[in-house]
Known about the structure:
The chain has 476 residues and is of the alpha/beta class. It has helices at 3-47, 53-79, 92-100, 104-113, 129-141, 157-183, 208-220, 261-275, 282-285, 322-333, 344-347, 350-360, 362-365, 397-403, 418-427, 461-466, and strands at 118-123, 148-154, 197-203, 245-250, 253-255, 291-298, 311-313, 317-320, 373-378, 431-433. The strands form two sheets. Strands 1, 2, 3, 4, 6, 7, 8 and 9 form an eight-stranded mixed β-sheet that branches. Helix 3 runs parallel beside helix 8.
Amino acid sequence: MDPILNDLVVRLEEVEREKRLLERQISRVQGASGVRRAAAHASANNSAGGGQFLPKAFRVLLVATLYSVAMYRLAGRVFGDAFSPSLQIGDNATAAADSAAGSATAWEESREKIRVGTALIIATVPYDAIHARALWSHLECLTEGIDRVLIAAPDALWSRLQVQAIKTEFVRRESNRREEKSNGTNIEVATDGGLPIIEEGYYRNDRYDIGLWCDALHYGYGYNATNITSGSNSSESLESTVPDAVFVVNDSAMSMRKYNNLTRRIVHTARLEMQGANLTAPRTRKQHARLVSLNGRFDDYSSPVPNARYNWVESVYRGLTPAGLKPFYDFSCSPQSFQPCFGAEFSGKRKRCVVDHFERALATRAYDIHTEVDAMFPSYFPHTAGFFPSFGVEWNASEENARHGGFWTADQWRGSGKFYEYLRDEWGFPMKKIKTLRNEVGHCNRLVTGGFLDGLPYPTRIQRFGDNFGIRNATA
C-alpha cells in the first residue's frame, strides 16, 4: 500500500477507536444523571400526550456531537497541532496542565517565549530482534517534541554494531519518509516536527537500565560530573548540555502507537519552573509533578508516610522536569546510591535489589509522593485507593470495576490481560511488554520493511556474557 494511504488508514482506525471511547464515556455520563432525568421528564410528557420528543432530541444531539468530535479529531490527526492540540483520550492530567496555562493558544504563545530543551535517553541491550524492534519503536513513536535522543547501550563490539546499524537505518528511512511527504500531497508533514538529533553512547551496564541512564546523563550530557562512579569507553563526543526536560525509557516494552502526552505534560511543567512559577500550592503541585511515569501505583496514597510497597512508579518510561532531575540523580546515580545492592550479586538477588531500590523506593524516598510524583496510567486496577490521580476526579473505580465485570487484584498491565486491554482500548495505553508480544508490531515499526532487523548479526550467548554486558535491564 502507498505510504500516504497507509498513514491515512491508520489514522482513520485511531479516530474510529476514539469514537468508540467517546461513546463509552457518554454512555457512563448518561447512566449517571442526565438520561435518568430526561427519561423521567419524558415519561411525564408521555402520560400527558407529549410523546418521545425529549429523548429523541437528546439522541439526535448526542449523534451530532459524536460526529462533530470524530470529524474534529480526524482533522486534528491529518492537520496536526496547527489545527488542534494533540491531547489523547484519557489524558486528563495533560488537559488539566494545559488548562492551567489558559487556552491552547496561550500555551503555544508561552512555548514561544521560553524554549524547553528536551532529551530522550533509551537504555537498550539489543541482543536479539525483539529488543532491536523495541528500540526502533521508541525512535518512531516517542520522539515527537524531542530535540535529542541518546541511545545508551553496553560498551561491547556487538552492541556498537547493532546500535549504529539501527540508528543509521532509522535516520535514512525517516528522512526519506519526511522528504516524500513534503514532496507529495500528505499535509501532515507541515506539523510533523523536525527529526531529532540522534546520538549514541556506550557505557558500563553494571546497574541494568538505571546504570545506562546515569552514565548517559553524566557522560552524554555532562550532568553532575563529580558525582558518578561508573566508567565509559565511548568514543563519541556528545555536546555537554543538560536538557531542561529529560525522558528515560528502556527496551523491556515496545511502543505500539505514537504517544506524546507524557512529553507535553513534563514540558509544560518544566516551562513553568523555568518561568519561576509558584508550584508549591497543594492544588497545583500534584498537577505539576516533577517525576511522571507511564505507570504507577498509589494504593496507600492517604498515609502520612506512604509505604513504598504500595506507592511507586515504574521505570519503563519516565519524564523529569528540571526540579525533578536532581533528586532522581542523587538517589540513583551518586557513588553511595548503589550501596544497598553491594553483595547482592553473590546471593543471586542483584536484579531484585535493583528493582526494589531504584524503581520502587524512588518515589517515596527521593520525592514527596503526595505532590511531586504522578503516573499517566495505573500499574494495577486501583481497588484499594478507589481512584487514580491522572484519570481525574470523575473516574470512579467502583463503577468501572462493576461495568467490566471485575478486575483481578493482581492483574498488572504488563501481563497483557483484561486490565491491559482496558487501558489500551479505553485510555489509549501506548506500550506492551515484549515478553507478552504474540507476533504483534503495532504502529511503531511501519518503517521497518524488508526484514532489516531480522537480518542483523546478533551476538551469540557466549559473546554477550563473555563481555559481561549481557544482563538484561531490571524491568525486562
